[in-house]
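re: ur question from earlier - yeah i can do the single chain one, its not a big deal. heres the input i used so u can compare w yours
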Amino acid sequence: MAGLVEADKGSLVVPPGRSVGYMEQDPQMTGFATLGDFAASGLEPGELYKVERAGEGLKFDPDRPVATASGGERRRAALAKLMAEAPDLMLLDEPTNHLDIEAITWLEAELKSTRAAFVLISHDRAFLRALTRATLWVDRGQVRRQETGFEGFEAWRDKIWEEEDQQRHKLNRLIKSESRWAVEGISARRKRNMGRVRALHELKDQRSAQINRQGAAELALESGPKSGRKVIEAEGLTKSYGDKVIVSDFSLKVQRSDRVAFVGPNGAGKTTLLKLLLGQEEPDAGTVKLGTNLEIALFDQTRDQLDPNASLWENLTSDPLLGISGKADQVMVRGVPKHVVGYLKEFLFDESQARAPVRSLSGGEKARLLLARLMARQSNLLVLDEPTNDLDVETLDLLQELLDGYDGTVLLVSHDRDFLDRVATTTIAMEGDGKVTAYAGGWSDYISQRGGLPGSGKGEKQNKNKSQKAKAQSESQPESQAKDALSFKEKHRLEALPAEMTRLEQEIAKLEQLMADPALFSREPVKFKKATEALVERQQSWPQPKKNGWSWRKSRRARRTCAAY
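and the output i got, formated as tokens:
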């Protein structure tokens, strides 16, 4: 669509006077000294203010040398360049990767208000739901279009797949019937029957030409021995680098099975705080106590655990954490030996890729390879630093389901708002100048409790109004009523309960629809097993009924479905 690759057939037409701008997934900045030089290239001197405006919103430093710029800084410069050029059509390839939520929110608002058209590739559900009005689905060489946004994509996709399965089933029945006829009745009237034989061959050719859907990665997590109930206890943590305060007088208790998310702008020190909590860095003040019997598995956002010049095979078999070195044919996967190629296939890699260097992989493939290394070993404390970058929607769904069923503790850094809402039970917000605050729930709960994003001014004003109102109420209420008031956690739980119940209902309905396929067990037993376990887990998560309390009616059908299977 950008005209950078020539099609085998067909035409690309850009009307006179119309312009197309393209932001590639990995911006090429060769020949430019600074990010500002790259962002301003192609603009007239009088238009440089447009780069400054976009740069202010994206918070990128135009004087940063290209050679030392991080992936996030390069992405911000590429976005600033595109927004400053203001083309009639913007083509955006993974624009939110490596951006913090503040920058994503700014970009989302800019795209909502622009009069230009845009086509974007993204796996950020919240971003897609907020912006899209039509969907192009690229599947096995075919491009389908639906005139609705991403909100309706998954239902549309599942319906098409269901129709495809029905057609394949009918074709298989017809081939089986015609094959039986060919064996039993071909001897009589040979000439007249040859046309039917040719038709049978055509049916078989039609079936052979069908391209099977790519399966989902077979992700699996296994907890090691249970850790102690208290996993991490931090008291009065303080850490600075020069004049920059990362964290000041921060305390936190992490219990077994907690899902703790860390959010904040890029450069706020989320990774540093993780290292402090894991004992990998020493604080300037304060103490950190780690629980007993911890087995830690780390997903590193920089992919430093992967050797870019080594092959996928070597990266799996030479990991000292797995107790294997050299170029063995097998890799130990949670205590069970598996052939390297077979294990790679579980993560959607072809056999031909096994000997290819890691540097030849896409961002999503590198993330899947790192997940393969991570999931090969047992753990009871999982540390995920930006795991959602480059992962497709289906793999994100699987990862979320795995984390739901994981017995251990999870520490998570992510800028994917939808993923945070699905996974996190506690959100640690790093708001700059050493201020770190813990909030109950995920991203939406954090924004609701705070009253808005940091820097918007809404949170501070609303919190001030709330505190004044609470003070006035406490002064006017009798002492007995004050004692009966709900605690902060109880109030938050009560407010969050309807949304949680709605989410569980939707997920149960989706799993029921999936398991309604009578051929699922025989066709994809692993998927059936995971769907069954996920359904049981969601039923158990349903709020327990009390007398005159919440009804179980909407989940009974789910329990009957599971029991029947």
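The first strand starts at residue 20 and ends at 23. not sure if urs matches, ping me
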